[in-house]
Predict the structure.
Amino acid sequence: MRLERVDGDVPDTQLSVMFGIVNNEGLTIGALSDLERVTPPSMNRTVNALVERGLATRSGSPDDGRKVIVTATDSGMQLVEETRRKRVAWFSKQLSTVSADERAALDAASPILRRLADS
Amino acid sequence: MRLERVDGDVPDTQLSVMFGIVNNEGLTIGALSDLERVTPPSMNRTVNALVERGLATRSGSPDDGRKVIVTATDSGMQLVEETRRKRVAWFSKQLSTVSADERAALDAASPILRRLADS
DNA sequence: TATTGTTATACTCTATAACTATA
DNA sequence: TATAGTTATAGAGTATAACAATA
């Protein structure tokens, strides 16, 4: 599903961070590096790339001068929405090849797989 | 599971190629790039890294002078076997947290997921 | 002429260590 | 002193384009 994207070759990692800042308000560099499970320097670099592409902006936190809040630009929000639309469409198409019984089997396995993935 | 590895920090990609050459005889650079779904130059680079680490060797094909066959060294085979052992142990441990009913649900979902992944 | 591999080049992601600025 | 972010540096993976060697 991650391969479903909008033309314009924004890499996967950068796209994932875009989804993060669109879906959550006021994320800092540190919060983003926790979310994506990378180190702060790595996230810093990725955010730089997003800002250079005009997809995100940095702004200082009002309450803590050390923190930096990353926000999506209009262009960034548009990219996320288009990508989401494409992914939902792809997923729906995949799901249409699954019978009701198969769907039930997947539903049954889903929470077990999630538990194993989180452990 | 892929995170389960032997100490010595051989990266994931390189380890995956090692499993490829241990599990299949006489693989060429081209065959390996197909197997790992990367371009030949990329695979060439990875094989170079393996040779530098002493895990694999290159040798010319007897029947086609253009082809290069990649083979695991003793050290390479040892690394693969130890890694496999660790991964099997990890997997068994995970499986031990799954009840018989849950196991049945996973077994039912498995072929469906495989079909979707291949499509 | 087509195929196989290689080299050159460039971009992305990742990490650790060391540094700056703020709390 | 501790925390948030940044810069410096280095290793790894990926791709495309251009090239050499062989079929």
